[in-house]
Amino acid sequence: MSLVSHWPIRLARTIVVAALFSLPIALLSAQGSYGMKQGAAPAMTGASPAMASSTAASGGAAASPAPLQGMIVSVEGSTLVLSEAGGLSARVVVGPDTLVLRRDPAALASIKSGDALGVAATREADGSLKATAINIFAPEVWQKARKGQFPMASGQVMTNAQVYRSVESVGGRTIYLKYDMLDAAIDVPDGADIKRMVLIGQSDLKLGAKVTVRLADGDQARAASISLDAPGA
Fold first, then answer.
1. C-alpha span between 124 and 11 (Å, rounded)
2. What is the pTM (predicted TM-score) of this model?
């Protein structure tokens, strides 16, 4: 048989082999689209948010800008100069809409249904979330907070939502948070840092105060909020 006569058979075999190789790729692509919404953080499930039961809400997966931490060493009009660790300095602009907050220590038992929380958590090997820090938002803060669940620059996951249930557990508590399509459960160990955010005035920003500055999205020079710990906290 000539080479020409073999050609249709070889072509058919090539098409079959190509189809067999492309099938697993198509299945993997479909699985990926169900497992993670494009542009969103992985969904969580289980006793703490598990992989399929919570959905990332507003804001997408872009990590929030890392906050600045330091001491106020100078005030130049509406600009604060901070001294950071390692001898670095940073300048941030305080605008009329910048929130200034005091972080008062709070007990885990003080968290009630309906409270708006900002929970920083680490993702465990089983896909659950364990809280490392919780901020209980004042109403004014909740109005301006970015709501939903999204990754942080630190690698942790931030969940900003409202409590609808709280369950005691051995060594801590599990809190259930909800906002829009987000429905998540987060374990809170006894050692979690819990603070209640209290709105104060910009006149409380004094030289020597140790502050945490969260920058405005899209404007890395402007402070969206500035928080400082309560005296003695």
1. 50
2. 0.64
